[in-house]
Amino acid sequence: MCIVLVAWRIRPDAPLVLAANRDEYHERATLAAGWWPDTPQIYGGRDRLHGGSWLAVDGAGRMAAVTNLREPGSSRPGARSRGLLVSDFLRGAAAPADYLRAVAGAIPDYDTFNLLVGDADGLWFLSSRDPAPLALGAGIYGISNGDLDCPWPKVVRGKAVLQQVLSKGFVQDQVSMEELFALLCSRDVPPDDALPDTGVGLEWERRLAPLFVQAGAYGTRSSTLLFRLAAGSVHFHERTFDATGRAVADVHDVIGP
Fold first, then answer.
1. Number of helices and strands (H, E) in the chain?
2. Is the pTM here over 0.90, yes or no?
3. What is the pLDDT, as a whole number, of residue 73?
4. Whole-angstrom distance, CA of residue 164 vs CA of residue 156
């Protein structure tokens, strides 16, 4: 996943609002969002290669999401799949802060990552660049493939639009959801002088700059909206795309009370 936009405790009717895109090679085998047969307390999409996930929740409403950090040349053969950071949290019973402290001690086992985990009581962030878990206060956050809230155009725009949508009213109506899906589907490419320099070259910076990525064999595979309502239920909406950028499936489920 290459962008996760989060509103935490901004609206009392929906304490957690999350809008995210997962970018991946289209050939990588993936299961759409659903309950996992071998781990029935977990709901989310699933990587069929290693069995983990980029974004998932459990029956109690705990959630986890992971992105990679864009550091060319840092991948290592034999590194543990980052998607297992999501599924390991949801399989266990550790509090978010305790889980991230344990992960911090195992950072060398993984390629570089950003990890977000939370429950009804708190939302926590960990970067493999900094072994200190961070408790997130009320606010709007953007997680992409750089540091938390890095000033990349897609992060800045995503946070601004999420703020606008939240300011209009109840976030779970159809109009609000389609506004957020439209944001996640944006193909706008910023001007070259606004692009970050992450070591992949200008052409790839351009290809990866939009919120919705279309770069041949690589691109946005799914968009997800997640709402945890004040009553405790989690509404999970996933829209999946083919290699041409065409939406091919929608999933909507309610987890919890």
1. 5, 14
2. yes
3. 83
4. 13
